[in-house]
Amino acid sequence: MKCQVCSGNRLYTVLDLGHHPPSDDFLSDERLNKEEIFYPLKAVYCEDCKLVQLSNTVDPKALFTDHYVYMSSSNKVFVKHANMLVDRLIKEYNLKENDFVIDVGSNDGTLLENYIPHNVKILGVDPSSVAKVSIEKGIPTINEFFDENLAKDILKNHGKAKIITGLNVFAHVKELASLINGVKMLLEDSGVFITESHYLLDMVEKLQYDEIYHEHLRYYSLEALINLFKRFGMDVFHAERTQNQGGSILVFACKRGVHTIKDSVATILEQEKGLNTKESFENFRKRVNETRIKLRNLLHDLKSKGHRIIGIGAPAKSTTLLNFCKIDSNLLDYLVETNMSKANKYSPGMHIKIFDESEMVKDQPEYAVMLPWNIKDDIIPKIRNKGYKGKIIIPIPEPSVIES
Q1: Whose CB among 56, 290, 315, 321 lies 3.0–4.6 Å from 210's, allowing a Cys bridge?
Q2: Per CATH, which fold does 72-276 belong to?
């Protein structure tokens, strides 16, 4: 086993979650009794380049399939975040008509559509079936994996880009070197590459082990990102922490020496002191296992008292939590979702039936586990307004109950 970035072999285990199915591979009735493939899910740390990563990678074609259902537009927090980021980029980089921007991992075009009123030239690249939604919106989109070869085609047909973004996608890409080489090829000399990834410091401090799933191949600290970009002749010149996905790091990178490195980089590196150590990861692992036991004990206790419990939402992270904690339909009666592409299907691995969110309001189960807990402040007022009166269980970082 070697590091995905530096090929170093000084790796040790951060957290072993066992074997899991792909997190977004929801099952139809027809597929329920067919063989389901489980893959190892273990995070390891490279002592050489400071990167936390999965020990085993799954073929992207097995993950981003016709069954892939996540759409950026379904996450209202991300929709607002994307809108604000584009407004900021328009102003900070003085984007004008016919300036060219690219979004890698553009999904359903949620970010790119914010550029349309500004007449900026846009292009999305996304390998999943969700790209067809972006195309239907009239957003130019290439339905392929982004790599160096595709970058050559884009350069030939569209020219260089002033801005390239990759939000919540930088951790997903298997051929990372090819992606960064492609980005560097397409950037104007003063161009900027902006990535946002779930932040390792938040994951460790807030016990966000459910952010570990097969689509997320890497878990970045700023130190690891700086080391990574240096390998490709690029600088991280600005970084900031955001609340997206429960805690992310937004990084601005450029060709070496083009932009002055801002104080924000040193500030966040100071916050990371003590993060990339064996002691830190051992403590994280211990706390994760303790929380797992507490959550299972809470659910078993409530069930033993005759209470009905359901799950709110079926995000990718819920697949990790449900499978790691061995929470199946004996503990959760069903799940509810607003994303209709998941309704009437079953959760990966644990096979819990998913219904439309209206079922929860009609049925009024006594308890509901908030699986997209990272956006609970956005979701809870909405489900209360819709009429759900039961108690809500927040599973992470410490299982807790919010009274009705």
Answers
A1: 321
A2: Rossmann fold (3.40.50)
**Cβ atoms 107, 72 nearer than 8 A:** yes
H or E stretch covering 140 = none
d(CA 357, CA 336): 5
Specify whether the CB–CB gap between 18 and 244 falls below 8 A.
no
Are residues 27 and 346 in contact, defined by beta-carbon separation less than 8 angstroms?
Answer: yes
Cβ atoms of residues 136 and 163 within 8 Å: no
176: helix, strand or coil: helix
Structure tokens at 176: 């990372």
pLDDT digits (tens, 9 = 90+) for 44-64: 999 999 999 999 888 776 666
Given a contact cutoff of 8 angstroms between Cβ atoms, the answer to whether 372 and 394 are in contact is: no
- Tokens linked to 85: 């980021």
State residue 404's pLDDT score. 72
Type of residue found at 103: D
How far apart CA 248 and CA 74 sit, in angstroms, is 19
Classify burial at 356, counting beta carbons within 10 Å of its beta carbon; exposed 0-12, middle 13-18, buried 19 or more.
middle
Tell whether the model's pLDDT for residue 179 goes beyond 70. yes
Over residues 86-144, the pLDDT tens digits come to: 999 999 999 998 899 999 999 999 999 999 999 999 999 998 888 899 999 999 999 99
CA angle 99, 101, 106 (to 5 degrees): 155
State the architecture of 305-402 in CATH terms: 3-Layer(aba) Sandwich (3.40)
Q: Where are the domains of the chain?
A: 72-276, 305-402
CB 68 within 8 A of CB 74: no
Structure tokens at 331: 């503990």
